[in-house]
Design goal:
Radius of gyration: 24 Å
CATH architecture of the largest domain: Alpha-Beta Complex
Strand content: 15-25%
Strand order of the largest sheet: 1-3-5-6-7-8
Helix content: 25-40%
Number of strands: 11
CATH class of the largest domain: Alpha Beta
Number of helices: 5
Oligomer: single chain
Distance between the termini: 86 Å
Amino acid sequence: MPYASETSLVPIAPPGEDELPHDDGEPMESDRHRKQMLLLIESLDLFWKDRDDVYVSGNMAIYFSELQTMKNDFRGPDVFVVLDTVRRDRKSWVVWQENGRTPDLVIELLSESTESVDRGEKMRIYAKVLRVPEYFLFDPMKNLLEGYALDVGSRAYRPMDPSAGGELVSQQLGLRLGVRDGSYLGSEGKWLRWLDAEGRALPTAEEQARAAEEQARAAEERAQALAEKLAAYEKRFGPLT
């Protein structure tokens, strides 16, 4: 730890999230990449809305060493999840302020300009420095999904075996990742989605609202049908007493 001077020997506290740049410095490759990131974060946040011990975010800098803060040589993951932590707003994830906690899962969205880094330097840091148990790569333009699990002994990633439908299991989260057709923020197409044990996509706020509307409409139609049956019965047999 650095000191204020050679004579005082008063330690200088390392910078925290209020002092460090919180943006990861890299714009999303395309509108599709941005929406895909938001979809993954939003749906998982909603799924865990009653939990206060998880943190889900993305496009945010993760700081894990003081040397890194001085060189500013690392960019944050597109999506990451931390378990067994405190759910609160943060400007950045500063490991030494988080009791040493690092992400339990990371997702990077591949593009031509970032793929070499995502498969190279970032993958090395996630495995050997941050020791992230699960690392997923997804190309939103080609709809290709890959998953890697950390071998703790070697600190290296081993490819996950996908299901017959191309889905991958996250042992850390107890969920699956898979590609599904759908619409998000006005864009139609295939999206990487969190899936439950039955293969159902965790809904977004828009999907929850749409489902509630459909349920309300179905209930209204059932009530209308019952009223019509009752009216027909009373017309034929007289009022019910």
